Fold this protein.
Amino acid sequence: MKKQEPKGRIRNFDEVALGYTEEEAIKEAKRCLNCKKPLCVLGCPVEINIPGFITKIKEKDFEGSIKVLKDKNSLPAVCGRICPQEDQCEKKCVLGKKGSPINIGTLERFAADWEIKYHPPSPKASADVRRSFNESGQKREGKKVAVIGSGPAGLTCAADLAKIGYNVTIFESLHKPGGVLVYGIPNFRLPKNIIDLETDYIQSLGAKLEINFLAGKSSTIEELREDGFKAFFIATGAGLPYFLGIEGENFNGVYSANEFLTRVNLMKAYRFPEYDTPIRIGDKVGVIGAGNVAMDSARCALRLGAKEVTIIYRRSEAEMPAREDEIENAREEGVRFELLTNPIRIFGDDKGWVKRMKCMRNELGAPDESGRRSPVPIKGSEFIMDIDTIVCAIGQGPNPLLLATLPDLKLTKKGNIVADESGRSSIQDVWAGGDIVTGAATVIEAMGAGKKVARSIDEYLRK
Amino acid sequence: MPFRIVEAKRLSSITNLFQIEAATIAKKARAGQFIVLRLDEKGERIPLTITRRDPAKGTITIIFQEVGKTTKKLASLKKGDKIQDIIGPLGKKTDFGYVGKAIFIGGGVGVAEILPVVEYAKESGNGITVIIGARTKELVILEEELRKLAPRLIVMTDDGSHGRKGLVTTPLKELLTAEKFDLAYCVGPDIMMKVTCDVTKEFKLKTLVSLDSNMVDATGMCGTCRVSIGGATKFVCVDGPEFEGHLVDWDLFLKRQKRFVNEEKKSIECNEANAQCRCRA
């Protein structure tokens, strides 16, 4: 797949990966063996009929292809871009055993983009989708379901329930729906117009959206029950930023990745002062962590004009949790990597601005509970790094705000919601899914959880 | 669903009172809480205290001073105009309950935050003394409203154009020397809150302050509003905005308040040069 050249792309926030042309897509689709027992489907958390949609592309029936995709996945343009296919469907592809697996993600993206370009979802098409689901005998009598959070888990669950006739309201605390897809993932990886289109589509299926609504504050679950809601899906994500817990992390110029990315992506601070939200970026930026959020932060920092951006990670290259593609993109763009390095103290000037950071080198020890080899500090390896902006991308936890209003809700030690296989919590009419249950994970896993919960809520409400 | 301004009033040359339709917020809001608003598609999210609420009418009242680009633009709106986004009520509500004798110190537009808290304190049965201060007579707000609630109201101006001349800490020291109080509650410019806390600390008087910080989501997600309270990092948006003043690391707070000072300047300049500036085109 073609990409924007690194030299040019670090000066803009436009999408880096350019996708397939029609010819390229058909050529790639033709490589698919259309296996009788497709293993790829087993690797897909939302069970897309992968050979099915690829066959349609092969036949140049792009409309048919998107129909197959949307049967299981309400957000194909998103998934085609940001799913870790290399660890899921593509990992299972038989062709991968001897050569390279089918580029399933890029094909999914192609079909979704084709639809956006030539066949944008219309109210009529959505009505057809609803009708087709209802005709298959799945009509429900419009019971009210509250979906809290409009990220990937919430949107998926809302779409699946709306399709079969439930009266679904999605509650979102920010002014725009999409959750992490809008505040977290940068435009160069996931253009924001795509999320607008996908959330419009879900609303066209009949789901209502209430923005500027903070569950627990705007209304409690109990008040929503009084308003007639029969089932609740808590999909509030991993919204609590973790800081390093070292001295100096409250100096000016130290951001949580959440703050940094929200300012840039949701609030469009990269277009300040045209947009009102400011962001301050220095010359030398250090991003702590090596997950996708860290790569996104580092690449945003470059685009905001930082001269030098360094990823600082306590383990080695092999343990970096980010997608390989994203690490490669970051490298191509000139992001530096200080691996096996651990920050231990941040220093600032007398006005409170970050100036330097003291780090220590690590070596790898025995595997820890995550199964990855653990970092062990090397005595006497301390060194000082000049730095004027720090982004902490070391993970996010569950936001306790709503959960604290539900004393009967069982939580894990880390504060995540305890949910069973079907996503059901310790409260009878409350389900949970996505990062609020699993801790920070992937978009597609959250979508998978949303799907399961939709099924379970449907079963419960039909009783 | 935009939020309509049903009343727009000037309280001084830089202070404005808006009554805004926001029925669900009016129903839920309590003293001490705030909203976050965003004016338009390109706007930033800023927190503002809810001064009054009218659940029957479905309105809330905010009082704000023109300091940054957003408050300047907000001030230019008129009755009938709409604000694109408002979320609230946010933050913890005031809940000190009955303490006995309470003294309230408000400075500048901070007086708008003192008013609902004084109402709350009165309902909770506390004895009430209020000191308010402003640079000059013209900037004194809500004096009449507070006089109705507080048997003892002391007004201070820096230039002596109204009430007594001097800072709020002068009568505060006098009162604390003469009488015993059970709680102080202070809202105003950052430096005034710090200085007030220095005074009450001498008298070992528990003091609550309500902090105002730059915020983005204001739901505990970004951590930009973090402060150090008794050595622990807290977020003003969800853990506050009220904190025990003697536990606040004021030095850190004052420094953090300046983290976007250059950008804010640029933003105002850009707004004022709007005629020539193409950034809004």
